[in-house]
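Record type: monomer structure entry
Structure origin: computed from sequence
Chain ID: A
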Amino acid sequence: MARRRVLTLLVTSIGPIPFATMVNREWGSTGQNYLRSLLALGFQAFLIMICVGIYAVLVQNIATEDDIIMAIWSCVGYTVLLCFTLFKTGSLAKAVFNAH
C-alpha cells in the first residue's frame, strides 16, 4: 500500500512537466501519455477495490462448520486468486487506456 501511495505522489508531483509539453507539436505525445497513465492509475485503484470486494464476499461465504480442511484450502485458493488478479490490474488498466 505504501508503494502505491509513493507512486501516486510521484506521478502527481511531476505533473507540470508533461502538461507543459501538451501544447508543443513535437512533444505533445508526452503530455498525452502522462494523462493516459494518470487515468490508468486511477482505474487500477478502482479495479483493486472491486477485486478486494469480491474477495471479501467469497471468503465470507466459506462454511467452516462442515469441513475445516476444505475451508482452509478454499481460503488459500481465493487468496492466490486475489494475488493474481491484483498483479494483473496494472497491465489491464494500462491496456484499457493505451498507456505505456
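Annotation 1: The first helix runs from residue 2 to 13.
Annotation 2: The chain is about 80% helix and 0% strand.
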